[in-house]
């Protein structure tokens, strides 16, 4: 049991604090013989990197990843892959207030209550900086899953403003700084975030992830369920407060006949589902339909507005957070969510393969008994 | 790694199919010396038991639990506790259609695609019957947690009809067959479910869980987060499609200053939070505030309305499910959700204790460094 | 983390005390579609069963195993397999002395010191009775491994009397009550054990296990080593105090050129090792040679000779164990050792398959990179 | 499940190859508030370091460890501790023969058969270099265990030459380059190893570990046994082929009355054992007596004597290993064995504490039920 690892057969352990000398992770269980180089990981880190638009924290980090083990002559060897990123832009400053006080809505006080000690510099271990390693691990997970599976994420809501789904265009997510799949919405968000930043406030967000091409059979009853582990992976991202699979909470309002996805057969003998309310998972197992998951990110607690707080010594105080921070941390959560989903899928792919040497690629019927 | 276990130090492994000779579980890691008898578990099973109102499945099971190991002279011994419940009311019938066809929205097809074989009788392993063992394990978890922690659940929504929170009364949840905390809403639901059952349809639901008295410090960064593991536990319950902690998805619409729970000091030197948007968890660690979680249950896929489906042989068919079934499985999910939350808390209590021999009981400041 | 489970992908959890109503286990991770019935398990239990010769405990148990889940129409379904054996011959007696005193060399006092409570009836959880479930799980493990792998055990030493290896005959192990591979030695042991039993004493033993046909590639660097997990599995059997792989402790006395197994190529392109000092494992990974392991079992602590002991109340006493007991528990450890080795191999086979979909069957060179 | 991790609550994951840029580990689960600096770890690394006498490999490494996370202002924070050591002395050379051939008795061929690819430079992942990280983790484990527990190791046999136990002096282990507890034996070994090195050969060894002051109650039935996990930890060290607890294999030759350690009460109400054949463990649980374990290390396979081998291409060849190597790797295994034992004890201490908040410090009777 590790509090800093996730996955079972594709297993990632991360370490590091925001203002320590470096952050890193160990990826254990990656199959041998896969081509892998730093250049395969770096683009995903660049996409997550802070400082890339004025809507995210202005911390400047190159986030250049180094592979320290597990790769030989350009291929994975089956031994653990260690990744490391140096911390460069740890602004030297007086941490007096943050060291002594607990920001409302921040993990500060929880760490203090649990451990009695915390590295308060830049949020320490609870900093979103750690998510860089998740993104790096996710890049390796994509290698394991292979090119047949496409994992994409989009921001579908900032504050109360939702994207127009009728205008959904995946290509658009790469053209605006919000991963927004709709240009018109992106334009509104530009204004919304500018106003929020000026007001010294912050906003929450909702991210939607879609994985296409996932083979059926991943996951398992009853506690190794694919959807349960996706839920844990997404809820474990900083600031996340809700997770949905498929229709999610909206499914509660549906009648049984609306919710159950009907099926028919395609000409080629594969099963076609006529809808995807289930979000690609039934009974904890993938069906071959696209996996659809959403998660909600709360607004950053580090804001300029003064808030009532308490100190380490048990005194009452007022606190406002000055410095570089994201007005909407949800934006940078998009590549992190993609990476977590990739890691869960890679893990379950290996787990499925262990029990089913001839794991099927498509939901084709009938399937012979072993 | 077990696909049929949950928890780490308080670890539950369940087994059994709906129509096999019995279902059971093994609870490993229960501390020694705790008083425990079958009578401590049975009331929770009785509350979950089918056949108790016309709004749940009419299967008749006494669900009499037997303790087969791990208890000696009325006390736990620290060795694994085996629990078992015999299956009595497995109506002998022709399973022809269910054996040959896949119900839309049901785990049938996923099991088939993964394993190529399934016990189709009564849903086999995917039957809600298995949740009896979760409830039994939850009763032991409550013993581990101790009487200082209160874990309660309520149904807050059936279909699109939500409870009136202004009229919330925990006592009321014991007076109606819906675990509804508001008598007026319960009356409406009575009519709603009658109509639904007559129409041969089904409805989804939302359950809210509240755990009060949870000590601060349970959970951990970053992948052993309390909220992440609650999310996995609840998403792993049959038919669940969404999970929220605290404000959940609504947090996305809040501004930072609305969402961050302010703090002040009480006279007795403990921290008081002025709100609980966080649902009792910050940075994956409990703060001492009530833990609040919600989960959404989709409508049962077993309905009378005919639906397009496919067969094991790959032929198209129409399917309607005749027989005893819940018009709203969400009702019976309330004690199951409570039990899962109890198990997660028991597990984290033991985990916290391992690292912190003097685990604090209340969020009192200052806490001395070890 | 479970203290009562072993294996990762082929995972066995046992429960039960010597004099409780039953003992049982849950086997999780068994691949689907394998033919399995109680008749596949029972013969292994019969071989281990007490009361079969005067050299083992005279407790009379039919040890009839029941499969309670995970098998449907004669095939495994991929869901957990629950096995159970009722306890019949729990002689009702006065446990006064055993309840109050700690037998020298017995787990009694350790349980007391750890838990403060113990089920003293028949040794409770520490009774060799639990090993019946290991044997049952081992029968399923053999199904997973398949008929190409042969796992056999033999008793090679009782007390200081060792078997004559020049006369080794596997068939002979089935003809005498000692699993002795040499008839002449078996005859000596008959006399030795009669004398030991009459003297109210007991003797230790050494068991050797050989697994032939194991494919290369099972195991892994560095902490999932095949030999390390075999060592844990064997050391975890009751009363075991030592474990060896291949030459074991004798390897310490060899020169490097004696110990290193030379290789050449066979006509068919496979590697032939010219010796097997390594016992089939190099760097924690199987090489395709026979796996050879040995373990030492201490003499039973339950003897007629009076011994100085202490009581629960902290008083000094003298203790002698009256009742049915094995003069040499090592005899019954042979099928238990075989079963544990089978479980470890099944687990590693699944683990290997997860990372290597085209796991090779024979040490043939060259192997193409994936 | 990680193939490169060990421990459960005190969990160590190592990474790195002999000739990569660095090696490292992540220690997860270390309790917060413990004083820790690089200076607490370095002395243990210095003791293990190669190049310190002519009897061990002449590779020159400073082995300067860096703490990259998990420590703040000189104290552990409860977050993962990352340690790293740079590789300096990776002699650039032609690896042609080692790259193309498999050394007899070496892990080379096993890696090839499993993975189809391997980092052959300096042994890659199978190099003894990795054990530096175990030693570093062991230093942290000692912090967790506390100063009341003393863990020491000694070399008790090189080749067939055993130490004279009557002359055992722990102080002497620090005065000679062999960790030999007897000066006379050490003098003989000096000659023995010089001769072995000149002959281009190598020798095996046996190491004995003793942990004093271990509290009773560590470990658990039945698969989380303290001795089973010690066995796995020691068998997992490079080149180890046998493990014993207490009397080990010699216990097989004892009669029951010889082997069972008698008990009496001390004046202060604690239990005194009159012997320690059990090596401090009964039923998988520590009794408060010294933990005694031994392990056998085979002779290095890298020797000057030509040996029959095969190549990657499946051709027969003759091989001799030229270069810097240990004539007796067992020497450097002493601090590694100590470290592994420390890690197992730290892990079990935390595990015990989880279930027993008031874990007793001494085997004092009676113990009140919880």
From TrEMBL, chains A, B, C, D:
Pathway: Metabolic intermediate biosynthesis; chorismate biosynthesis; chorismate from D-erythrose 4-phosphate and phosphoenolpyruvate: step 7/7. The keyword NADP applies. The keyword Signal does not apply. Reduced FMN (FMNH(2)). Pfam families: Chorismate_synt (PF01264). Keywords: Amino-acid biosynthesis, Aromatic amino acid biosynthesis, FAD, Flavoprotein, FMN, Lyase, NADP. Its EC number is 4.2.3.5. It is an enzyme of class 4 (lyase). InterPro entries: Chorismate_synth (IPR000453), Chorismate_synth_AroC_sf (IPR035904), Chorismate_synthase_CS (IPR020541). NADP(+) binds at residues 48, 54. It catalyses: 5-O-(1-carboxyvinyl)-3-phosphoshikimate = chorismate + phosphate. Its cofactor is FMNH2. GO terms for molecular function: chorismate synthase activity. HAMAP family: Chorismate_synth. Belongs to the chorismate synthase family. Homotetramer. This is Chorismate synthase. It comes from Sabulicella glaciei. The lineage of its organism: Bacteria, Pseudomonadati, Pseudomonadota, Alphaproteobacteria, Acetobacterales.
């Amino acid at each position: 049991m590790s509090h800093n690892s996730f996955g079972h057969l594709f297993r990632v352990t991360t370490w590091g604090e925001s203002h320590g000398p470096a952050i890193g992770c160990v990826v254990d269980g990656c199959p041998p013989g896969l081509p892998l180089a730093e250049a395969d990981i770096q683009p995903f880190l660049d996409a997550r990197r802070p400082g890339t638009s004025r809507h995210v924290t202005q911390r400047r980090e190159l986030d250049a990843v180094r592979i320290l083990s597990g790769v030989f002559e350009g291929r994975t060897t089956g031994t653990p892959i260690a990744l490391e990123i140096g911390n460069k832009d740890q602004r030297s400053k007086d941490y007096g207030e943050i060291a002594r006080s607990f920001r409302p809505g921040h993990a500060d006080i929880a760490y203090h209550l649990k451990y009695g000690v915390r590295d308060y510099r830049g949020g320490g271990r609870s900093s979103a900086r750690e998510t860089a390693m998740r993104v790096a691990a996710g890049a390796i997970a994509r290698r394991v899953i292979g090119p047949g599976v496409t994992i994409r994420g989009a921001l579908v809501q900032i504050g109360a403003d939702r994207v127009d789904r009728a205008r959904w265009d995946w290509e658009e997510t790469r053209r605006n700084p919000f991963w927004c799949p709709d240009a018109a919405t992106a334009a509104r968000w530009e204004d919304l975030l500018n106003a929020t930043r000026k007001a010294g406030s912050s906003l929450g967000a909702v991210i939607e992830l879609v994985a296409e091409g996932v083979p059926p059979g991943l996951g398992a009853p009853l506690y190794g369920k694919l959807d349960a582990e996706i839920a844990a992976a997404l809820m474990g991202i900083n600031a996340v407060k809700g997770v949905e699979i498929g229709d999610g909470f909206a499914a509660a309002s549906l009648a049984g006949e609306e919710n159950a996805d009907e099926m028919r057969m395609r000409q080629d003998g594969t099963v076609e589902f006529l809808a995807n309310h289930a979000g690609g998972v039934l009974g904890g197992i993938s069906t071959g339909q696209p996996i659809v998951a959403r998660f909600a990110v709360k607004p950053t607690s580090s804001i300029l507005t003064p808030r009532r707080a308490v100190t380490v010594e048990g005194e009452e105080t007022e606190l406002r957070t000055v410095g570089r921070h994201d007005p909407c941390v949800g934006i940078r959560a998009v590549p992190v969510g993609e990476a977590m989903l990739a890691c869960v899928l890679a893990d379950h792919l290996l787990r499925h393969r262990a029990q089913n040497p001839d794991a099927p690629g498509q939901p084709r019927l009938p399937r012979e008994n072993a």
